[in-house]
Batch of 4 targets.
Target 1
Amino acid sequence: MEREFMEFDVVIVGAGPSGLAAACRIKQQAAEAGQEVSVCVVEKGSEVGAHILSGAVFEPRALNELFPDWKELGAPLNVPVTRDDIYMLTGEDKSVKLPGMLVPKTMHNEGNYIISLGNLCRWMAEQAENLGVEVYPGFAAQEALIDENGVVRGILTGDLGVDREGNPKEGFYTPGMELRAKYTLFAEGCRGHIGKQLIKRYDLNSEADAQHYGIGIKEIWDIDPVKHEEGLVVHTAGWPLEVTGNENTGGSFLYHTENNQVLVGLIVDLSYANPHLSPFDEFQRLKHHPVVKQYLEGGKRVSYGARAICKGGLNSLPKMVFPGGALIGCDLGTLNFAKIKGNHTAMKSGMLAADAIVEALKAGGEGGDELTAYPEKFKSSWLYEELFGSRNFGPAIHKFGALMGGAFNFVDQNIFGGKIPMTLRDKTPDYACMKKASEAPKINYPKPDGVLSFDKLSSVFISNTNHEEDQPVHLTLKDPSIPIGTNLPLYDEPAQRYCPAGVYEVVTQDDGEKRFQINAQNCVHCKTCDIKDPSQNINWVAPEGTGGPNYPNM
C-alpha cells in the first residue's frame, strides 16, 4: 500500500540515553561544521521516559562530554553518592558486610549520582528539541525499511486503530508512516525487536559470544525519614538466589535518593537453571531480609517496573554497522556489568555513532553505506577500554559462582586493572541453561503480606501499564502447540514464573484440558519471555504506540 512518508538525514529509534545522546551530538557537531542535518527520534512510549527503567547509579562521564554545562542547564543529577555498603547475604536473616578493601574497584561509586533515568531522558529530550531535533513519542517503530539491495533506508511506524484480527477499525485506523533516512540508528534498548531482526539478517553476531541477560525488577518506596540516608548505595549478593536450586546468580540494589525515597530492586541472571524459579517472587522475599527490611519497614511502595538488561559485555558485542545504519546502546549491548552500569556507556556509543554520521554527511555521503568510522572510533575510545577491562566479570560469576567468581574479579580488577592476560568465554545462550522440571527442586514461595511483599497484578497496577485491548497481540508464538505440548511437560511452562507481570498462564478448562493464556494487556515490555523461553517460541514485537507502562520517574 502507498504510505505517507517523511525524509530525514538521520532517524533514531528510541528516546533512551543512547538515542537522545546521538541526536544531541549530531546537531552539536553539525552546527560546529556549519551543516544542516535533520534528525528525528521516534519513541514508542506515551512520552519520553515512560518506558525508561534503570537502577540507577549514574556515572556522568559521557554527560560531561555531551553537555559540559549540564549543571547550569538543570540536568536532574541531584543526589551524589555518599557511601557504598556491600553485603553477602548468607541466609534469610544472615549477612556479612564486605570491607571496602575486598570490593572490586568497579563497584565503588565515588563521584557518581543516584538518579531517575526517566527524568534524565526527559531533560535530554528537551535539550535535543532545543538543538532542532524532532522528537515523536507515541510512535512505535514496527520494522526497518530495507531496499532491494539490502540497504536500511529508515523505518515504518506501526498502524494505529487495528483490531485483534488485524483489520482496520472504522473511524480509528491510521496507517503507519515511512520515516526515510540516509542513516538509521537503532536505540531500542535491550533485545530491541528490530535490532534482533537486523542482527539475524546481516549475521552481525557471527563472531560474537552469545549475548547474556538479566531481568531487573525495581520498586520505589517512600520511607520513614529517620531511616533515610540520602546518597547511600547498598548492594547485596547471595541469598535468596543461591539457596533455591538455581545454579546462577544475581544481586540486589537499594539506593537512597531524594525526598525520603529509596529505589530497591533485584537483578536475576537469566542463565538460571531451575525452571521453578520466579524472579518476581525472589524479589518479594528479598525485601524481608533484615538488610533490606530495616529501610522499607513502615514505608509505602509507590512504583513498580521491570526490564531485561544486556550483560554479555565486550565478548558478546555483535558487529555494530550494516548498510545504512547502526546499533547503539543496549540494542548493541554496551552495558558494563562489572559496574552494573550501562547508561554512560549507552550514551557514549550513541555519541560515537553520531560523530561517524556527521563525518560521512560532511564528506558528501548520501547514506546507504556502512559507517565503518563508528567501530573504528569505538576501538579507540574509553568505552572500548572500559568494556575490555570488564570482559571477564560476567563469565567469572557464571563459571565460578558468586564467591569464587567474586574472588577472581577482585584479582582481575584490583590487581590487574582488568587486564589479566586471559579472556573467559561464556558461549551458552541463557535459554539453553534451563534444566528439566523433573531435575530441579521445586520452590515454595511465601504468600505476599501486602506490607513488604506483593502479588504481580497489584504490582502491574502501579506501573500504570495499559494497552488498547482490541489490537493484535504483540506477544506471538511461532508454534502455538509448544507451550502445552513441550514446555509444560518438560519445564512446567516457566513463562508462568519468569514473566514479572502475570502475562502468561496455564489455564485448566472445564474438560480438564490445559490451555496457554496470554494476558498481553499486562505486559511491561521487559522482553524476558523473548529471551528465556527454552523453546525460543515467543516473539516480542512492539504494540501500538503509547501502549505499555507509564513510569513517572523510574
Target 2
Amino acid sequence: MSHDLHESLRDNVRILGDSLGRTIADDLGQSFVDKIETIRAHAKRGRQGDSLQQRQLIEYLRQLPERDLLPVTRAFNQFLNLANIAEQHYRARFRRVEDYKPGSQPALGELLARAQQVGNSPRKLVETLANMRVELVLTAHPTEVIRRTLIQKYDAIDECLTAIESSEDYPERGARAQGRLEELISQAWHTDEIRHERPTPVDEAKWGFAVIENSLWQAVPDFHRDLDNLLLDTAGERLPLDAAPIRYASWMGGDRDGNPNVTAKVTQEVLLLGRWMAADLYLRDLEQLKTELSMWKANSALKAEVGDVAEPYRELLKRLLTKMEATRDWAKAQLDGRNYDGGPIIETRDQIYAPLLACYRSLCDVGLDTIANGALLDTLRRVAVFGVTLTKLDLRQEASRHAQVMEELTSSLGLGHYQEWSETQRQEFLLAELESRRPLIPRRWECSAESREVIDTFKVIAQEHAEALGTYIISMAAEPSDVLTVALLMKEVGGQVTLPIAPLFETLNDLDHAGDVVDQLLALPGYRALTKDRQEVMIGYSDSAKDAGQLAAAWAQYRAQEALVNVCEKHGVDLTLFHGRGGTVGRGGGPAHAAILSQPPGSVNGSLRVTEQGEMIRFKFGQPDIALRSMEIYACAVLEATLLPPPAPEPHWREEMDQLAKVAHAAYVGVVREDPDFVPYFRAVTPEGALGRLPLGSRPTKRRQDGGVETLRAIPWIFAWTQIRLMLPAWLGSGEAFSRRLEQPGGREVLQEMRTQWPFFGTYLDMLEMLLAKADVAIAAYYEHRLVDEPSLKALGKKLRERFERLEDVVLDILQQEKLLENTPLIRQAIDVRNPYIDPLHGLQAELLQRNRDADGAISPDLSRALMVTMAGIAAGLRNTG
C-alpha cells in the first residue's frame, strides 16, 4: 500500500473533522469544542496504554453536566460517520485498493487471462459470462441506523471531496467546493440523526428503490461497458445484448417472516411503486435518446415499422415514450386508488426491449455502430437488468403459517387434522391434490385472519406478471411437505404464475438434513414435474450461527451445500444456492470474493443468489463507483468459482473439521443454552433491553415477547454484543476447539496446512482475525463494572473474557503472527483511527444505560435520545450493526 494513498485518506478525515469542529463551535461555542478535544485526547492516550488516561476519560464523562450528554454523543457520532465517508471515498477513488488480503481479488481482466491460460477458449469465457446469473437480493433487515435524509447529505459531501481533489489548478473551484462542504456538514449537524418513527415496509422499499435511482441506474451500464471492452480485447466480441450477469431482487415489502406489518396489500403497493419508479427512470432515458437519435439512415425493418418519415428513430421513440408515460400514469392512479382511463401501458420487459433493439440493429446495419453502442446500448443494458419493475420481488413466509392454512382447510372439509398427520400422510395428500383438477379451497371459505392473509398473498401472485416476482422462500423449512404445501397453494390460488420455491434451512439440525429433504422432494414425480429441472435452496447463516455457534454453523453450511450439489447432480437438476448472509461475521458476512471462493466446488456453477442487508447495501452499492467495484467483485468471484473451482477438501481436513465443530458446538451450547446465568448476564451487560426503542426497521426485534435468547432475532442478538465490543456470537466455542487441537500431536501443522490450502478454512480464520481486532474485552469489562452487580454474573463475564483472550493467542499461533491484522494494514488503520472516537461513546452508553435502569426507563427525552445516538455512533464506528 503506497504511502500517498494512506495520506489521501488521512487528509480527507482531517478536512471533514476540521469542518465539523467549526460547525460545532458556531453552534455551541469554542469551549464546547475544547471539551470534545479533551475527551478525544484522553481516549487517544488511553488507547496508547495509559491506564491513568483511561480512568480520567471515564471520570470526565461521568462528570459532564446532563445538558452536555446529547451534544457530546452527537459530536462523536457525526465524526465517525464522516470518517466512513472519507474511507468510502478512498475506496471508490482507488478501486483496486484491497480491503482484506493483499492480492486476493484479481481484476476481471487478469482473471480472464488466467482462465484462458488453463485452456478456456475466448468463446467459453463469453458464454460463461452471458449465462451467468448472479442475483443480489436487497433486504430490509433493520441494520441501517442512518436516516435517508442524512445519507443524501453524506453522498453530497463525498462529491465535494472529489471536487476539492480535482481543483488543484482551479483554486476558485476548490473554494466553492469547500464552501459547499461546510454547508452540508452544518446541515448534517443540525439534523436529528435518529428517526422518530419506525420505517414502514413501504418506506424500506422506497429506500431500496432510491439506491437504484441514485447509484445502480448509472453503475449497471458502466459495469457492462467495462465488461464489453474487456471481452472485445480478450475474445473479440461483446456480451450479448440481453445478457445480465448480475441482477437485482428485493425482499422489501415481500418478506413477511415474523413481520406482521408486511401484508398482501403492502406487497401489492411495493410492486406498483416499482412499476412507477421504473417508468419514471426509463422516461428520462427515452427523452435523452429522442434528443440524440436524430439520424435519417435506417434499415428496411425500421422503415417498415415507422413508415416513410424523416427521422425514423425519433418516431419510434415517441411512440415508446407515449406508452411509458401512460405506464407511469397508470401506476400512479393505482397507488392513489383511482381508476385509470388512459392509453395502453407497458406490461413486460420485451415491450421496451423490442423497439430499442430495432433501433440498435438498424443503426448497426447502416454502419452507425458507434452511435448504436452509446446511450442506446446503456438503456438496453438497463432493460436487461431492471426489466419493468426494477427488481424481482421475493416473497418469504414461515412454514408454520402454511401448515396452519392446511390444518384449517382439512378440518373445515372434514378430512381430518393436517397437523396430526405423519409426514408420509401429508405428502400423499398434497401430491394427490396437486394432480387433482377440482379446486380444493371452497369459494366462500371462512378461515382465520392469519390464514386469510396467506391466501391473499397468493392472490397477489396470481395478479402479477411472473417477471415482477422472484422466489417464494419458506423459512424454517424442515420437510418435503413444507415445499409441497406452497406448490399446492400456488396452484389453488396463484393462477398461472408458478414461482420457484426455495426451502430455507437455517438451524443446525435442518442444515444437516437439507440434502435428504431435497433428495426426497426431487424423487417425487408429482413435484419434479413442477420444477422444470431447476431447484433453488436457501442456506441460512444468521439463525444457524445463533443456534450452534459460528464454527459449527459454518461447517454445517458447507456440508449442506455439498450434499445439495450431489443430490441435484444425481437427479439431473440445476441447483441455485441462495445465501442468506448478514453484514457481520456472526451472520455470515465478510468480503464477497473470499466468501464465494470458499464455497464447496460445484456449488457456484454460474449461478448464485445472495442477500445484501441493511447498511451493507449502502456500503457496497450506495454510490456508482463503489457499486461498480462491488459488481466486478461478484462477477470475478462467480467466474473464478465456475471456471477455476477451489479444490475439494482432503478427507483428513473433513475429519479435522468434524472434530473442531463438535468441540466448538459443545462449548457454545454449554454457555448460551446451559449456563443459567447466561441470559441474565446478556440482559444486564448489553443494551438489548433498550434496543427495541431504536426505530431501525419495520420488523419487531423479537419473534416472541417472552422467553430467552432463542426468541431474539439474530440481528438484535448480534447488535447487542457488538455494542459492548465482545462480539461473542462470532467466536464463542472456537477457542476451545483450536486450543484442544493445538495441544495434540501435529495439531499446529494440520491447522496451518488447512489454512493455506483450503479456502473455506482460510477465509474462516481471516474473518475470525478481523473480528478479534474489532472486539475489545477492556470495554466489555467496563460495561460489566458499571451495569452488573451480581457476583455470579460477574464471574461468568470474567470467564468469557478469559476465553476470548485465550482464543486471540491461539489464532496468532496458527497464523504465526505477532499481532492481529499484520497483513491487512488498511483495516488495522481504519480501526485504530476510529477507536478514540468510539471509546467515549462506550463510556457514555454504559453511563446512560445505568441512569435509564435507575430511573426504570423514565429518563428525560434528551438522555433517551443520547442513548440512541451512542448506539448509532458505535455501529457507524465499527462499520456494522447486525
Target 3
Amino acid sequence: MQLAALKHRTESEDSFVIDATHVRVRFHSAKNDVEKVIVHYCDNYLPLNQAKTIEMTKIGEGQVEDHWGATLEAPFHRLKYTFEVIGNDGTSVVVGDRAISSDVESALMEDGYYFKVPYCHDIDMVKTPEWVRHTVWYQIFPERFANGDKSNDPKNVKPWNPEDHPGREDYYGGDLQGVLDHLDYLKKLGVNGLYFCPVFKAGSNHKYDTIDYLQIDPEFGDKDLFAKVVNEAHARGMKVMLDAVFNHLGDKSMQWQDVVKNDPSSRFAGWFHINEYPVEPYHDPLQGEGNPQFDTFAFEKHMPKLNTANPEVQDFLLEIATYWVKYFDIDAWRLDVANEVDHHFWKKFHKAVTDIKADFYIVGEVWHSARPWLNGDEFTGVMNYPYTLQIEDHFFKHKLTADQMTKRLTDQLMKYRDSTNAAMMNMLDSHDTARILTVANGDQDLALQALTFEFVQKGSPCIYYGTEMGMTGGNDPDCRKPMDWSKEDGPVWQRVHELIKFRLDHDETFGKGTIKLHVTENGLIEVDRDGIESVKAYFNTTDHDVKIDCKDSFSHDYQNGVLAPKGFVITAR
C-alpha cells in the first residue's frame, strides 16, 4: 500500500459540519491501491470501546487518487474519528491525527490517533444560500443586450448589427431600458437569475474602469430605472447580481485625477499602490518603458489598483457594497479580479453584506484553485473556470479524452465542500472568453451537447446572453456583439429553453444531490446524480453511434436505443 498517498485534512473540504449532528468526511488514497476504508468514530468524551464504524463509499476516481466519503453522526455535537485502511495487498494501517500506524488494534484504542471536531458550531458551518441551488443565471453585457432608449445613446453610436465585429471603443447603445423591455422575454426563456456586467458610471463601453460607484452610468439610465429593473425582475421570480469592481478604479475617477494633479500631496495618494511620481505618463513594461509608477489591473494604465488595506478605502468600498443591497435590494455581487484583493478586506465585505441579507450570494472571479476564499467567511462560490475549461478541453478542443476529463473534474470537486460545489457559478463562456459556438467551430449540436453537460453538473449554471440565439464571437471584444433578436423562438432558442426547463424541473436533485462521473465500457460519459430522484445522463463524444437502453426523459439524437455522436440522453426517475 502506498502510505504517502493516504490523505485527510481536518476542518477543510475533507471534514466539514453539515448540520448540528452530522459531519461529512473524505479520504484519499492512491488509485486502485485500497480495498476499503473504515471510519472509527464516537463522541470526544466517550471511551473508544464505544466507537462506531462505517465503511466509506468510493465517491470518485481522479487522475492519481481514489476519493472516499462518509457521513458521521455526532449526536452530542462533538466527534473524534480515525481511518482504518485496508490495502489491496492485504496490509492494514490506521491513518490518524498524529501518525500512520501498522499496529491497528493498538492505534484504534489510542485517543491521539483520532482527528477531532471539538464542537459542531452552527456559526462556523460553511452555509450557502438555498436559492442559488435553484437558479439558472443569464449574463447580460448591458451595452450590447438591447437599446431601449435612444435618448441616452453615446456619441457616434453604431447601428445595431449582430454580425458586426466590435472594436474596443465601439458603442451600440444598449441600456437598462432595453433590459426592462425584455424581462418578459427572459421569463419566457426560463432563466431566474440576472448577472449584470458593471452598470456604474465609467469611461468605457464595458464599464470596468469605474468613475462613480454610486451613480448608474447615464448611458444606461439612472437609479430610478435601475430600481424598476430590480423590482420587476423580482416580481418575475428573478434574482439580480451586480458586478463589483473593487480591485481598481478608473483613471477618470475623481480620486485618481486628484493624484495626477497633486502627486504625493493628494489626499488620495494612500488609496493606491504608487511606486514613484509623477504617475503620468505611464511607463508600460509591455512596451519596454521600464517599471510602472503604480500598480494596475494587469498593465492597464486606465485601471489603477486600489489599496484595500487602507481603512479609508475599506470604508469607501463597504459603503458602496451595502448601499446597493440596502436601497435597491440586489441579491448578489460578482467580484471582479477578486483574487488580487486581500483576504482581510473580503472578510469585512462578507460580514457587511450578509448582515443585511443572510442569504446574500457572493461570487469571486478566480480562475485557479480558490480554497482560501471558500471557507465560509469570504465568498459563497467562484466563477468555476477551472472546472468548465476542462469541459471545453474535451468537448471542443479534444485536448482531453473523456476518461481524462471525468477524472480531472472529479479531482476538482474534491477541492471544495459539498455546499460550496453546489453554489459555484458554472459557465462555458462569458464577456472574457470566446463564445462556445465559436470554440465549437460552428457546430451547434456540439455546443449544445456541452452546454447540457454543464447543466447536469454541481453548481449554478450561467448562460451568456445570445447563446440561446446561436451567436458567435471570438475573444474579447468579439464576444460582445449586439444581441441577435431575430433568432428568438428559433430552433437553437427552443433547445436552450427546454434545457433550462429540464434543469429547473429537477433542481432539487441537480442542486442538492450527489454526483459521480465516469466513462462507460462503450465510451459514453455517464453522470449520476442522486437526490430525491435518480438522474442518469449519457453523452456520446465518440465518432460513432452507441447502443444504450435508457428511458428518455430528455435527449437529443437518441432514437431506438441508439445514441448518435454529439447526442445525449437523460433519464430521471
Target 4
Amino acid sequence: MAKNKNLIYIAVSIIAFLVLAFLYSTPVFTGKQLFQHDIVQYRGGAKELIDYRESFDKETYWSNSMFGGMPTYQMGSRFEGDIIKKVDSYLNILPRPVNYLFLLFAGFFLLGMVAVRNWKYALLGATFFGLSTYFYIIIAAGHNGKVNTIEYFAPLLAGILLVYIRKKYVIGFIVTTLFFGLQVAANHPQMTYYLFLGLGFLFISELVRAIKKKVPMKHFLISSGIIASALIIGVGMNSQRIMANSEYIKETVRGKQILTNDSHKAGNSGMDKASILNWSYGKLETLNLFIPRLMGGGSQQGFSDSFENKLRESFAAQTNDEDQIEQAVQSVESQIPPYWGDQPGTSGPAYQGAVVCFLALLGFFFAPKKYKYWILGATILTILLAWGSNFMPLSDFFIDYVPFYSKFRAPSSILVVVELLFPLIAIVGLYRFFNNETLQEDYKKKILTYVGGGTLGLTLILIIFGKTLLGFTNDNEKEIPNYILDVLIEDRFKLFRIDAFKALIYVGITATVLFFSLKQKINQNVALLIIGAVSLLDLWSVNRNYLNDDNYVDKIFAENPFQTEGSNYLVEKVGDNANLQSILASIPVNKTLETIAENDKKHYRIYNQVLGTTSETNTSYFKSSIGGYHAVKLRRYDDLLNEYISKPDSIKTPKILNLLNTKYMIFGNPGEPQVVPNPKANGNAWFVSDLKFVNTPNEEIKSIGEIDSKKTAVINVSDKSYFNNKPVQADSTAIINLTKYEANELEFKSQSKTPQLAVFSEIYYPHGWKVFVDEKEVPYIKADYLLRAVHVPAGNHNIKMIFEPQVIETGKWISLLCFGLFVVLSALGIFWMLKKKKENVLLEKTL
C-alpha cells in the first residue's frame, strides 16, 4: 500500500513539472515559438544542408554555405546509426522550451529520489535546479545544445550514485549508460567535460572511503568497473558523432595552431589563452549566485525606471540645450550597460537563488560525509576555474597540463556544475536536518544561528556599505565624467539594493521556518512547502527578466526569420518586439541577397560587409558566404579571416576575395545595401603554371596577399614531392569549368594542351574528400594556404570531387553495435534481477 501511495506521489510530481513548464511557457498554447538568436543563425547557416536533405532524402556532411565551406558535423547533421539521438528526440517531443524545463525538473527529481529516497525533497530539489536562472538565459539566447546537454546532468549523476552509494548495480548501469549516451548525443562536449571535472571528486571520495574501509574495496572496484563500462558504451553509442567531430576538431580553431605570431606558437594545441579566458567570471561576481544584480544584471537588461530622469537632470546642470541633453542621454543609455563586471558582456547572472545558496551552505554542515566533501571540492574547483584570467595560477595549470581543457572558451560557463551541486547538497542537508536523529538539536541550532546570522549579517553590511565596498564601476569607466558616473553608480547600487533586500527577506523566512520547525512550532511538510514557495517566487521572478512572453513570436517569424518583403501587416505584427524589429531591419539586405541568388544561380560566394562578415548567416541562407556565424571554424580559414578580412587592406583583401571566388560584394548600410559585382573573381577553378614554394605556413599566408593567384600558386615545400614526374607547363588556351554543383559533389571539365595544376576555389580539408580524374582517383594537395589543387594531364578531362568521409561509415557500425550491446546487457541484467528476486521470495517462504 505504501509503495503504491509513493508511486502516486511520484506521478503527481511529474504532472507538477509539466504544469510548471507549461505555465512558464504559456505562449506555446497560442502556437507561438521562441525567437532565439543562435537558432536564427543556425537556420541561415544550415539552409544548404536542410535543402539537400529535403531534395535527396539523404545527408550531406559538407556545406559551402559558411566560411567558404566546412563539414556539417557541428551544423545539425544527422547520422544514420544514431539511435540514441532518436531516443533524445522522443524525450524532447514537447514544444520548446517546455521540453527543456520539464526534463530539467524530471531529471533532478530522479537524482533527488536516489539521494534521499523521499519524493518531497526530490520535488523541492527539482524546482531548485530546474529554475536556475542561467538555464533560462541560455534558452533565450538559443544555446539549445548546451541546455539539452545539461538536462541530462542530474539523471546521469543519479545513475552513478545508484552504483556507488545505493549498490544498485544493474539499474545504475542502465541509468548511467542511457543518460551518458543521451548527454553525449546532445553534442555539447564542453558541458560534459566540465561535469566530469566535478564528478572526479566523487570518484576520489569513493576511493578514500574504500581505503578507510567505510565501504568494501570490492564494492568500489566493482562499481568503478560498472561505471567505466557504462561510460565506454555511452561513448560507443555516439561513435559516428564523436569520431567525425574528433577528426574535424583537429582542423579547427580548437586544434593545433598553424601560424606563429605574438599570441601563439605553431604546434600549440587549442586556442590561445586570451580566447580561452575571454569570458572569465570576476571573483566578486561569484556573489551573483546569491544576489542577481550585484553586477548590474545583464548587459542589455536596462537600468531602473528613474535612471533616465536622473541622467537628464545631471546633463541639465551642464547645459541648457535640450537637443544636446537628449542626444547625450540616448548616447549613455545605448553605450553604457548596467553590467559592470569583468566579462566583456553578459546576458545575465548565474543566479542560483538566495534560498538555494543558503540551504547549500547549511548542507555542507548537515549532509553526510559521503556527499558533502566531494561536493565541496567540486564546488571550490569549478568556482576557481570560472574566475579564469582572474585566477591565472590555476587557469595556467589547467590550460597547459590538463587534457582538452584548452579546447574550450568562456570559463564562466563551468558554473553549471555549481548549479547542479548546490540544489543537491541543499536537499541532502535539509533532509538530514529534519530526519536524522544523530544530529543533536543544539548542533542544529548552533549551525542555523551561525550560518543564518552570518548570511543575513553579510547581506546587511553590503546593503549599508555596499557603495563604498563594491564601487559599482570598473576600470574601463575611468574616463566617464563624474556627473555621469555618479548617476550610473547610484542606479547600479539601487538595482543591487533591491535584490539584496529580497535576499535578506527570503533567507530570513527560510531561517525562521527552520528555527520554528526545531521548536516543533511548524511541522516538516509545512516547512518544506513554505521554503519551496519562497524559492519558487524568488527564481521565477528573476528568470522572467531573461525569458518571458516577449521571447515568443508567431510561427512564421520563428521558422522564416529571413523575410524579404515588407508590408503594413508585417509591421503591425512586429509591433515593438525588439527581436522582430531586427527582422524588419534586415529585409532590404535579404531582398538584395535573394535577388542576386535568383538572377545568378551559379556557384560563387558573396562578401557581405553590411551585417558583419563573421556575425551573420543571412547571406548563407541565400548563397554561399565568405563569412558566417559559428564557433568552430576551420583553422586555416580563421587564419585567413584574421589576416585579411578582419583588418581589410585595399590591395591585399581584394586579392583574397578573388581567390575565394567572391563574385558579389555588399556594402552600405542595412537600409540601403549596395551591390558591387566583382568581375575579377578567379572563378570556381583555374589553371596555374607558376609555382611558388615556401617553407612555412606564415610564408604561405603572407604570399597569397602578394601574388597574382590566377597565374601563381603558393605551395608548401612539404608538398614539393607531389610534382615528381608531374610537370606543369603554361598554356594560355587552357580552360576548366564547373559543370555540376552539389554541396558534397562537384564536377569540372578541363581542356589543355599541356599538363596543368588546377586550383579550385574550394576549401582544403584533408579528410573525406576524394578527387577523380576521368573516374580514376588521384591525390590532391593544398595550395594558396587553404584551397584544393590537383595535377591535370594534357587533354580533355572530367574532374570530380566527392565528400565521402570513411569515419561516418565506420562510426555507424560501432554506434549500432554499442547500442545493441547496451540493450542486451540491460536485458540480461533485468533478467538476473528478477530471477534473484524470485529466488529470495521462495527462500523466505521456505523459512
